[in-house]
Protein: Inositol-1-monophosphatase
Organism: Chinchilla lanigera
Amino acid sequence: MADPWQECMDYAVTIARQAGEVIREALKQKMNVMIKSSPADLVTATDQKVEKMLISSIKKKYPSHSFIGEESVAAGEKCVLTDSPTWIIDPIDGTTNFVHRFPFVAVSIGFVVDKKMEFGVVYSCVEDKMYTGRKGKGAFCNGQKLQVSKEDDITKSLLVTELGSSRIPETVRVILSNMEKLFAIPIHGIRSVGTAAVNMCLVATGGADAYYEMGIHCWDMAGAGIIVTEAGGILMDVTGGPFDLMSRRIIAANSRALAERIAKEIQIIPLQRDDED
Ligand SMILES: [Mg+2]
């Protein structure tokens, strides 16, 4: 049977590339930075413009599909995942990087049907890396097949995570103490690229062994999630339970053993779910 979603995926790659071009051009211009949920949660006119461009072109081609977009939700649209084919879009993952011209900025497009990830496209546009993952068909970067690392001994692992955009003292304290606990196990190191999507893609390439974070959103994870699993990795909740796309937290690792070991160290930050009003 022909793959019913392959055409959608090919289209996602095409428009992610176009969006990346717009972002690269915008990096050469002056920016007007606005804030959202905290003084460190930034948005620019380019985030909004790129999301509008992506959603309107997909809608034209697939009018019956549903959409969740970071900036549409910020503008008041509902963030509820149904069984309908849904495009989950982050027009710029790494807006703080974009604002500072720190060269890791990604367009993330995830496609979910019956609440299951079908494909994901993450275009890291400054470094011109197109990551893709299609259920059952593997994950690729610029056409090269991806495979997670084999290191499941945490003491020999390199982890990626972020400090996040919350500046609430208790939240910052828990984030730092989680890093401290993991760091002191000891592990080889911790890195932060500044975008959840690229962090996860780095796990898919084997460059990092695992990524974890709390406080992110479904649009940060929906594109790269299937890239990790198709590269042989796994997704897990930070409690050690099953991954939930709307939970705002994730461990993406090369193996169940490493993910469980990380989950053991993590103190949970209470968060409002993406689909909670
Ligand atoms: Mg964004």
